[in-house]
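Standup, Tuesday
Yesterday: got the pipeline producing structure tokens again.
Today: sanity-check two examples.
Blockers: none.

Example 1:
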Amino acid sequence: MTHNFPRHSKITPPVAIAGAGCYITDSTGKQYFDGSGGAAVSCLGHGDADIAAAMKDQIDKLSFAHTSFFTSPPAEALADLLIANAPSGIDRVYFVSGGSEAIEASLKLARQYFVETGSPQRTHIIARKQSYHGNTLGALAAGGNAWRREQFAPLLFTASHIEPCYRYRGKADDESDHAYGQRMANALETEILRLGADKVMAFLAEPVVGATLGAVAAEAGYFTRIREICDHYGVLLILDEVMCGMGRTGSLFACDHDQVRPDIIAIAKGLGAGYQPVGAMLCSKDIYEAIATGSGFFQHGHTYLAHPVACAAAHAVLSKIIETGLPSRATMMGRQAFTVIAINLWPASFYR
């Protein structure tokens, strides 16, 4: 008998009692190879002694201080480390407890930015079909996954969704990869004009799609064109790096590959590597200054913002990712995996 509310009431999951490296052990002693790191979370494996020590040290000093009244050394240090490695122009970090919260904060900041800068008519969010950006109502409304949205549709705000950049389904036979990518990017401009050139506040997308398409990157030049369109119409570019960020693509931020600087970035998952619930919204200096020199108050917040123990854990995680060169190893392993897949799945004619 359990009083725990499970994800699925008709499934009885095993009880996990221990974790070490890539393995989780259940209450019967059975071991499971955690090849995906849970939901792409445990990027450093289970039972890392350095991260555990950082958490214990912080608990001994301070477990909680409400951010309405205090900041803390772990939050300040983690923010500094993130900004030191963030895309150019990104200047501030707002710590939350997970990916959905990071997206919610991003959407609300985008809206408040335009209210504070005298463009309250900008209310529309554009994302992509079959996208997933989280399960809170705002994040779910912005996402384009029909199955997840269906039963909650009456509760969701109306967002627009353009086609994803997925050449295996969308590219015409006589179209180059680049031309296809540009056509998909230009769909954003078409949608902005349909809604009203001064009515759109943000475009939201994952640099590498995770949960709904399965590790799908856009065509080269796609996000460069997206950035140009956003700049032309004064639309904010929000990149969801909750799953693909923190080194998984070979650089700490996935958008580094496209050399595109977003206005707002959402991160989580690999930031805490599963050791604590933590996420973050990062924004440009311009957006922060609009709030700071205006009302001075971002009208948002949660009890566990910038939790000291969560930030201490995330700082230890991020330091290990950077200092041990894990992003470059991800690049190397990705190339090896690509080679294995190509040899085993693609026809011999491909190599001729």
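Example 2:
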Amino acid sequence: MRKPNEIDFWRGFALITIFINHIPGNFIERFSYRNISLSDSAELFVLLAGWSMRLMIENPKRPLTSGGVVYRLWGRAVTLYIAQTFITEIAIFILAAASIWLDAPFLLDWHNAGAVFHEPIEAHIGLVLLTHQLGYFNILPLYVVLMVAAPVIALIYRTFPQLLLPLSLGLYVLTLAFGINFPSWPIEGTWFFSPTAWQLIYVIGFLLAGKTTDVGAFARRHVRILRWIAVPIVLAGVAIASTRYFPDLADLPKSGRFFVIFDKTFMSPDRLIHMLALCALFAGAYTSLHAWMPRFASFLALLGRNALNVFCAGSLLSLCAQIVRYMYGGRIVTDVILFAGGVAIMALVAWISEWHSRSQKEQGALAPALPSPFRSS
């Protein structure tokens, strides 16, 4: 297993905050940074996903051909799709079982699940096509789409690297100008996360991973200046989020409103700018945090190294926690126990995942190595 690093640390941090925020109303949620921020862990998670994608396909020790890039990224997309399908079906089972056990049929309508029970044929087609998504289980579909598009991003960068960011920014502007989003079905509506908007922060994460080129190299050369610029942006975000001072939609024109409202679906510019400011402000902080709290930093990095498995576990645990809070009320003691128990189980999932991966590597080392058709010579 790789050693603890900054990317895994912040990914682990994002996983913990996602788990907390997916239990609405709980006491621990009050201390989540989204309460004093215009952005939250979703932006951080997607940015780090783009960063990780760059590291995945640009390993100098094992360079990939163009075919290898497509094969690896689409293989990852299939893994994410399977994970989304699995946790969604388990979530449906949890809601159905809880509704029977607690004699609470209204649970069948929680989090957009009602169509699964009232229109099962259409809803299950929608689940397979990702056009029907449960509430709090809608970030992986975005990730699947981004990973399907990832070979295009990678190949554009390999061929015309200077065009990648302008093309991504242009698609983002068009999305905000015309409200472009994927449709939902069988329930009318659109996706909670617009992939054509969120692709921008994914691409920015991809470019920030560059150490000697691209936006990443520029940011590293000017990190001190960027931090000074970031401070007032972050403070403004704290003031706005704390006072809940948001513009009234009635006062805004329909055309282009997503440029000025604080909207998560389209990752409006305020959220994007605030997340980039946070990145500039806290870039490099991992070294100090690891020196000050080595066990805590290593723990978050453990979660981040096994992000997919931990995320799936956390999503299901947050749903279970919501049901427990319904049963026993939202007392502080209940919330603390749910938080501690959920994080402990997520840690156990990460540990088991690493143990399994380590066992597979040890077994693979005993087998003869086969040449890969996707590795460049």
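Quick observation on example 2: The radius of gyration is 21 Å. The longest helix spans residues 66-101.
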